[in-house]
TrEMBL record:
Matches recorded under PANTHER family: MEMBRANE-BOUND ACYLTRANSFERASE YKRP-RELATED
Keyword set includes Acyltransferase: yes
Protein name: Acyltransferase family protein
Keyword Transferase: yes
GO molecular function: acyltransferase activity, transferring groups other than amino-acyl groups
Keyword line: Acyltransferase, Membrane, Transferase, Transmembrane, Transmembrane helix
Alphabetized InterPro entries for the sequence: Acyl_transf_3_dom, Nod_factor_acetyltransferase
Superkingdom of this protein's organism: Bacteria
Annotated Low complexity bias: 1-52
UniProt organism field: Actinomadura rudentiformis
Annotated stretches, region: Disordered: 1-54, 387-412
């Protein structure tokens, strides 16, 4: 849908929804800043304390992009129950053709420097893993108490929109691998295509995790100069034309293509096609999503706007809006004839835009921060290394000794 919560200096997932601008999403931190690197190099004795480098200012372009992208997500989910309306279905199909790839590419871009060093693994657990567990329980309880369904909690089968946090956790863990192989995007695309040849079931939503992986890797491969290309005036004009064409394609094909293709969560067999046809269809979906997501980025404002600051809190909108869209189903709103009428669809769209905006505002962030960004320091302990302190003491006591002795000790 990566991955944002604090505008401090760190990382989608969320995007994707973008994650709290705490961990790993900080292009603003100076590359040479020891604090940013976490190397802890001591200053020379007697030397005056160096002034702390100023953080680079946040690029409003990306905050604008994340905010507009989360609005697409909210609108898409709000229309999910009235697809019997041609207007709703055409808008829905158009959004679903690229909105999650867009989030994932941006999340991957801000994950380029992700490693297991400097406490980033802890930040991944605190800002992705813990919210995943919390909202998996929260949505399951909501489905039970409000929806009247059977209570079912399973962390291995992500509920509704929590799949993105599960996917982002796994993508982030794989980041060092993609940064070290020769053709990362080609390899990721190959894995994605092969994954659809087998039914992987619902566990961890693996079809989406592996199927959408190329977009995350694409984000890892992008550089700032690539985004400068789409900021040119001529690119914006081309982007508008492409988006209009994309909507026309969605409208013309919505009754001739299985809707499940845009969900990225089913094998080729599910659609009743052979592997060759399925691969061709998936490649077409890759090309379509990539074209549309970059076309969308061309129309994103480059300068600060009234909604720029809201782009730092898109994870809040992502995780919270599902309670409202689920309520449309539980309350029977989607089943009414009015909801599927043109005025009803337009009302759902406008209401979704307002809801998505409100969920990114500071009052909502402050009142729900305990839920999305709980204090998790008590969960962690000092890093445990193989062999503990005994191996280190032995290594220091016998510096000239064969290192194999220490290795054998650490291997016990």
């Amino acid at each position: 849908m990566t991955y944002t919560a604090r505008p401090s200096a760190v990382s989608q997932p969320a995007s994707a929804p973008a994650l709290p601008q705490g961990p790993d999403q900080a292009p603003h931190a100076a590359a040479g800043d020891p604090a940013a690197r976490g190397d802890g190099a001591p200053a020379a004795e007697g030397a005056p304390a160096a002034a702390k480098p100023a953080r680079k200012e946040r690029d409003p372009f990306f905050d604008n992009a994340k905010f507009l992208a989360i609005l697409l997500v909210v609108v898409g989910h709000a229309l999910g129950g009235v697809l019997r309306s041609p207007l709703a279905e055409s808008v829905y199909m158009f959004i679903y053709m690229f909105h999650m790839p867009l989030f994932i590419v941006v999340t991957g871009y801000f994950s380029r420097n992700w490693t297991f060093s400097s406490g980033k693994a802890r930040k991944l657990i605190a800002t992705v893993g813990v919210p995943y567990v919390i909202f998996e329980f929260a949505y399951s309880a909501y489905d039970w108490l409000v929806g009247g369904n059977e209570l079912k909690v399973t962390l291995l089968d992500p509920y509704y929109l929590t799949w993105f946090l599960c996917a982002l956790f796994l993508w982030r863990l794989s980041t060092p691998v993609w940064q070290q192989i020769r053709w990362p995007l080609a390899v990721a695309a190959l894995f994605s295509l092969l994954s659809y040849m087998t039914d992987l079931g619902a566990t961890l939503n693996l079809h989406r995790v592996i199927g959408l992986l190329p977009f995350y890797v694409m984000g890892l491969m992008l550089k700032p100069q690539h985004f400068e290309l789409i900021k040119k005036p001529q690119a914006r004009l081309l982007g508008i034309v492409v988006l209009i064409g994309g909507f026309a394609v969605a409208y013309l094909t919505m009754n001739h293509m299985a809707r499940g293709w845009v969900y990225w969560d089913h094998s080729f067999r599910h659609f009743g096609v052979d592997n060759i046809t399925g691969i061709a269809m998936r490649l077409a979906m890759f090309a379509c999503a990539t074209t549309l997501l970059f076309a969308f980025l061309t129309i994103v404002p480059r300068r600060k706007t009234w909604f720029t600051a809201l782009g730092a809190y898109t994870l809040y909108a992502y995780l919270l809006h599902g309670f409202f869209t689920k309520l449309l189903s539980f309350a029977g709103v989607w089943k009414t004839d009015w909801a599927a009428s043109v005025p009803g669809v337009l009302t759902l769209i406008v209401g979704s835009l307002v809801l998505g905006t409100l969920l990114c505002t500071l009052p909502v962030v402050r009142s729900t921060k305990w839920l999305l960004e709980p204090n998790t320091t008590w969960v962690f302990t000092k890093l445990r290394r193989p062999g503990g302190g005994r191996a280190k003491r032995q290594a220091k006591a016998t510096p000239g000794e064969d290192r194999g002795t220490v290795s054998a000790e650490m291997g016990r």
